[in-house]
């Protein structure tokens, strides 16, 4: 590990050691896993609670995996849920819906912290998130939650380096995102659409494709895989077409630009992204 990463890790330790009892918003991703581990090291397991939140907009498999990982780490775990589709701000699926989603989450975590006697709510935001379209940062700030990895100036590459050093099994896990990110802004969210993209992606993953997005355009499914895997995807054309039409899509296409996170944000202007982020 290089000297700068070591220095930032020490800074993270100092930030955490000044806290008393903390809740960690735990998703099972590399960022929140590092927060949980370092909080355990600095504060002791009894003073750290991993809260795993079930949501209609995330896969049940991710929830179950996060619970198991936290338990394997010896953490105290609380399983809870939020109903995002019941929130009009989320269901309307505008660029600002990310703000309403995070506002709902942080509000729920703050309520738990107050009820259970914890002093801080911690999340897994990192420095890279400051350069991305993240309206949730505003909700985080309003709620008073702490992004300790950002406070320690840690970037994704450093988070992975520290996680590998700590032998955390998710150190190289790809980032995941809400299934709502597959549906264009302005198209109202509902359980049917969410389940369509969920089942479509799970099916393609089972065919051997790890990096997959199925974007929902009403009757059309737009599949994103890496450029290197497009030819392989076509070998499964008949299987994919049958499955996705069974799910309710009339047309199935491949995006020639390939897999990329945040492609639904490409329709937003720089000004719109700035407004929503602030």
Q: Can you put this structure into words, describing what you see?
A:
Mean pLDDT is 93; it is low at 269-278. The protein is globular. With 278 residues, it is of the alpha/beta class. The relative contact order is 0.13. It has helices at residues 3-17, 30-43, 60-72, 88-91, 97-116, 136-143, 148-151, 156-165, 191-206, 230-235, 237-246, 270-277; strands spanning 22-25, 48-55, 76-82, 120-122, 213-217, 220-224, 251-254. It has 2 domains: 3-165, HUPs (Rossmann fold); 179-260, Alpha-Beta Plaits, CATH 3.30.70. It has 12 helices and 7 strands. The longest helix has 20 residues, at 97-116.
| Spatial arrangement of strands, main beta sheet | 3-2-1-4
Find the CATH superfamily of the largest domain: HUPs
Number of domains: 2
Task: Please identify, by name, the CATH architecture of the largest domain.
Answer: 3-Layer(aba) Sandwich
Strand-residue fraction? 5-15%
* Class by SSE composition: alpha/beta
Number of helices: 12
Largest sheet: 4 strands, parallel
* Estimated helix fraction: 40-55%
Number of strands: 7
CATH class of the largest domain: Alpha Beta
Distance between the termini: 35 Å
Quick gist of this model?
This protein has about 280 residues and is α/β, with parallel strands linked by helices. It contains twelve helices and seven strands. Strand 2, helix 3 (about 60-70) and strand 3 form a beta-alpha-beta unit.
Give descriptors for this structure.
13% strand; 3-stranded mixed sheet; Alpha-Beta Plaits; globular; 4-stranded parallel sheet; alpha/beta; 278 residues; Rossmann fold; 2 domains
């Amino acid at each position: 590990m290089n000297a700068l990463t070591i220095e930032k890790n020490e800074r993270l330790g100092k930030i955490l050691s000044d806290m008393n009892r903390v809740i960690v918003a735990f998703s099972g991703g590399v960022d929140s896993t590092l927060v949980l581990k370092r909080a355990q090291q600095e504060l002791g397991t009894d003073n750290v609670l991993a809260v795993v939140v079930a949501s209609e907009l995330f896969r049940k498999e991710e929830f179950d995996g996060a619970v198991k990982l936290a338990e394997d780490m010896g953490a105290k775990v609380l399983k809870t849920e939020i109903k995002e589709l019941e929130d009009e701000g989320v269901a309307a699926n505008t660029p600002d819906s990310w703000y309403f989603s995070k506002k709902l989450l942080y509000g729920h975590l703050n309520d738990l912290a107050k009820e259970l006697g914890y002093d801080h709510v911690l999340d897994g935001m990192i420095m890279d998130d400051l350069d991305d379209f993240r309206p949730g940062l505003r909700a985080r700030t309003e709620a008073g939650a702490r992004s300790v990895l950002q406070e320690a100036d840690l970037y994704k590459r450093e988070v992975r380096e520290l996680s590998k050093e700590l032998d955390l099994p998710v150190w190289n896990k790809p980032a995941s995102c809400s299934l709502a990110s597959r549906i264009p802004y302005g198209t109202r969210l509902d359980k049917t659409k969410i389940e369509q993209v969920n089942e479509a992606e799970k099916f393609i993953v089972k065919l051997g494709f790890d990096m997959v997005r199925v974007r929902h355009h009403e009757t059309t499914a737009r599949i994103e895989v890496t450029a290197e895997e497009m030819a392989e995807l076509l070998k499964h054309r008949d299987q994919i077409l049958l499955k996705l039409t069974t799910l309710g899509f009339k047309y199935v296409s491949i995006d020639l630009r390939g897999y990329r996170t945040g492609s639904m944000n490409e329709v937003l202007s720089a000004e719109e992204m700035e407004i929503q982020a602030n």
